Amino acid sequence: MGLKDDLDRYREVGEERRQDLADFIQYGDLGQSRPDEVKIPIKIVDLPEFAYDQRDMGGVGQGEDAEEGQPVGQPQPEPGDGDEDGEPGEEGGEHEYYEMDPEEFAQELDEELGLDLEPKGKQVIEEKEGDFTDITRTGPTSTLDFESLFKKGLKRKLAMDFDRNYLREALKVDGMGPASVFEWARGENIPVAKAWLEDEYDALTSEEKTEWASMAEMDETVERQSTAERIRREGVDQIPYRREDERYRYPEIIEEREKNVVVVNIRDVSGSMREKKRELVERTFTPLDWYLTGKYDNAEFVYIAHDAEAWEVDRDEFFGIRSGGGTRISSAYELAAAVLEEEYPWHEWNRYVFAAGDSENSSNDTEERVIPMMEEIPANLHAYVETQPSGNAINATHAEEVERHFEGSDNVAVAYVSSPEDVVDAIYEILSTEEAEA
Amino acid sequence: MNSDRYEAKRIAEDLEEPVDEASNLAEKLGLHPYAVNYWIVDYDEMNELIAYGGFQQRYPHWRWGMQYDQQQKQSQFLGGKAFEIVNNDNPSHAFLQESNSMADQKAVITHVEAHADFFANNEWFGMFADDPDAAAMLARHSETIQEYMQDPDIERAAVEKWIDHVLCLEDNIDQHRPFAPVETDGRDELRDREEDFEDIEAKLDELDLSEEVVGQVFDEDWLEAQRDDDGEITFPDEPEKDVIGFLRQHGMAYDRDAEKAVAMTDWQREILEILRREAYYFAPQKMTKVMNEGWASYWESAMMSKEAFADSDEFVKYADHMAQVLGSPGFNPYKLGLELWQYVENTENRREIVERLLRVEDITWRNLHDRVDFEQVQDLIAPEEALTDVPSHLDDLDPEDPRVDADALDRARNGEFDVAKYPWKVLTYEGLAERHYSLVEPQNRGFVSRVGQEELERVSRYMFDDARYESVAEALADIDYTRGWDRMREIRESHNDVTFLDEFLTQEFVDENDYFTYEYTQSTGDYRVTSTDYEDVKKKLMLRFTNFGKPTIVVEDGNYNNRNELLLSHKYNGVMLDLGQAKDTLERVFELWGRPVNLKTIVKELDEHDIEVAKRRDREPEPEEQGKLVRYDGEEITTRDLDWEEVEHLAATDVDYDTKPDEWLA
């Protein structure tokens, strides 16, 4: 037992073995994220206790210029103090959420969904030094490849070395002088210098100069040693390092491609897009935006709202807008195509075009205009998210038509969201479509 | 020694000096902390300690796992913060995370010294035991419960659930009474009677009477009557607030297979007692959170910034850390505590000044504001320069001066320590009090002049010797600089959060620190600011801190309806229960009582129509108060209305926590 065990037990709360506590679990949700942060829900298990009714209790706040009657932001009740008629989880206190940055979010989502979208680099932004795998002949001492210098030196030594003792003995053979030993050594492939032989010969006493009667006698008595044996016995006392053997490691040059992404979010804002549908769009788009922001170095967003006409808006407005008009989805794609062409050339930008709506469209618009445009606009991924809280409406066939046309395609995804529970599946559906291609 | 331990040892060596000096400084500032043992722990160990509430070993339970998970996510996603963990024990144990910056370590150390002082000196901590020996106690508890869980005859899940049941009542103890273990000698009354009853049944069986006789004479009613042969027994005599203790003594477990109450097993009884003991051990900390955290923050800041305990490069980090702790949005008990302590210090110091001023000839409470030049007062009360800048005045200090520590002065002059680093060593408590005098700080410069007529009158009322000084200068030369600190130490000895707030929260404080109250209003369906009046703010704070911020529930009858049912009562103070949670809790109480359980309460009812009308007229509807009895018999929850007479005794008439302005009401 111990903390690890406690942690396992906590994870089991509400699961099979501790079903009895299932009612006391609250989860936060992913909505309402500000542009620069996302909130990660965590599981809180609150045992019941005798507590005050949160609403009836009121509270104390701190802040300048408070005036009677002024509304205060939702007070932050302790977790578990949610009252009966409030929706659990909606009034959650601060501590039920943890804010994380997009990169972490993308990682979490990858883990959660088993995705691994590899972002593609487009524009070369800088040349960067990679690993030190290249070799040059000059360089700072710190990058000197000593191992290769040593090996070369050793080779050189082996090549130049000879059995000094043996040659000395050869000089002692009667009748042999430096010149004749040198001749003989050449024949034996012993790399000796004539000067060395001369010096050695001068150092011998006259008695020594005639120690051996013949080469044959000497050879029989004196054992000749190979260089390898000698090194093994005596060690390498000196390695001849040469400047020309020096090699310096050098970093590989890598072209760093910046991973640019532009995400076009398109939303139907026509009269039929009521509160619920709008909310579902936000719930789906926000994590997608987040995911891509986390995956790429540089993410930009284009928000396009449309009814029968399309116009570009800011993110702040995007999820809230509502207009009265009819619906013509192609208007949004026309605008998207123009914006992408102008500002986000395909050779520099990864493009994602996500559209959402309730699948209602003016007649023939899908087949005659939207589908051809989706084919024409180059993008990593096109997606259409149908948000229909009440299931399918009769005339709402845009999603189906698109799905039918692009069946099996690796860059068009269609997802259906009818309640918040579907969001995760939809995200998976969309993101895994592109992954399949990668 | 592996490299980790080596690292920890190196850090420990670096921290030795700050630890010693913090303790020395704390003593000089008048604190008397428990000795503190510091431990260097790594990140994982720190998270574990936090999860375990500051101890190394706790009984096995999923909630520690939950806290660990949260703690980890929090540091993973929000970035690690420097946590201070110190536990209430003698000696106290405090933990320092090895990856913290030096500035954080020092902040933690100074903070910890002040907590250790609070633990040692606040009377509420004596309620549990004078020498808690907490770590050992909690470890013992952990081992006992582990043994039960590993006992092959006991199902682990059953133990876990039993713990959950008890934890639902964690706050239902009598925290204002000293802790005493539940008397275990002798068999308890209820079980005795229950067993006697079983005896009768057995004897009847032995008599081998015919069905007919049994049916006619010894029928169920007769048996029931035997059970209650002493007539109606109502106990406890007085409503019992220690619900866990009561259940420990009289509760039974419910055997689902036999469909009846059975005596608790030894392990059940022991776990109840263990959890009750832990609830009592942790109660003082819950009851003094505002004071204790404020106290620690106050002294931490005195040591860290005023005594430059943080080196100048560390100071920026320290300031940042403080901003993080105190700057978190919304209502923050740490901040409230710190602000209140500072306010207490300022008012006490101001009172000293006012008392001196009122003793000046021709100055009375009526004319003080006209006669006194407060600019001049500020100049006169400023500490002597030799005290604020010790290193440059080392030669001017007089060893005979009571504000000077003659010994240390001698050592400083001989260069035995670095006086630039530790100037405070040269001063005594009196000297430091003057050096730290709160009223000369820039943010408090207007504080003396803000003294109200009412306060002046109150002070002067008890003053006899009122013409002692000829001039303001003469009067102020006599001020006792230690008065603020002396008073603060007295308060930290005897108060808890409730009494602290009750006594020291004033309109001046509420205005200065921008507190307000809010209520849920039916007409708008959201929370609205209702008042900035200190009485209202106080009410709401009292509600939040009285009885751990929980409603008071007492055992009213252990033999309710003469049927051995349990009757709990909610002492209604005008704020209703969260009824949904109360029902869930009641289901758990049943597990600890073994027989049906009841709860009397008062709820406020509003009908839809009233709310509609209120919305239209923008007036708050007046809710109807209605007595309710909630009952759980092991199968289902039932709720029925009670006549007002049956709950009247539960309703407190002398309190009103509602802060809505009268004119809002319909």
TrEMBL record, chain A:
InterPro entries: UPF0229. Residues 53-101 are annotated as: Disordered. Pfam families: DUF444. Residues 80-91 have a biased composition (Acidic residues). PANTHER family: UPF0229 PROTEIN YEAH. This is YeaH/YhbH family protein. The lineage of its organism: Archaea, Methanobacteriati, Methanobacteriota, Stenosarchaea group, Halobacteria.
UniProtKB/TrEMBL annotation, chain B:
It holds the Pfam family SpoVR_C. Residues 13-350, 477-548 form the SpoVR protein-like N-terminal domain. Signal peptide: none annotated. InterPro entries: Spore_V_R, SpoVR-like_C, SpoVR_N. Residues 551-602 form the SpoVR-like C-terminal domain. Coiled coil: none annotated. It comes from the Archaea. This is AbrB family transcriptional regulator. The lineage of its organism: Archaea, Methanobacteriati, Methanobacteriota, Stenosarchaea group, Halobacteria.
